[in-house]
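__Protein archive entry__

___
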Amino acid sequence: MGLQIVEGAADRLDELEPLWAAMHAVHAEMADEVAPVRPLAESWQRRRAEYWEWLAAGDTRLLIAERDGRVVGYLMLRFMGGASTWEIGERVAEIESLSVAESERGQGVGALLIDAARELGAERLLVSVVHANTRARRFYEREGFEPFYLLMLERPTNERPS
């Protein structure tokens, strides 16, 4: 059977939890450099609710990578109108999450998910990456992404300059 990319719906969200946990673990490794992470159970509960809401709204697509019937990766893609200022197209889509099982990383699963997302009709894809996640940044650059916006987070009150 090999690797295949299929479209999923809200009834498959629970299958994504281990992949969310894998992504959460990567984020947790960067916590000292970025910000503390929520406990895994709370994080998944919040994200699962967002996924459910987005899929119900009809502007989101879930792509699932399966190898021999096992879920080994997923990509959540949200569609939106074009930007007010920038000429980037009238139908763009943001990759909200892309996660690949640790055992599958480096084998082209993420690239196949991106290719499948490109075929869903957006003129351009967007993705946000934590600045400290150099592995993800390199992956997206290989896939043809380049820096666009710089999202900045205010320091906690006790760490601000006076």
About this structure: The mean pLDDT is 95.
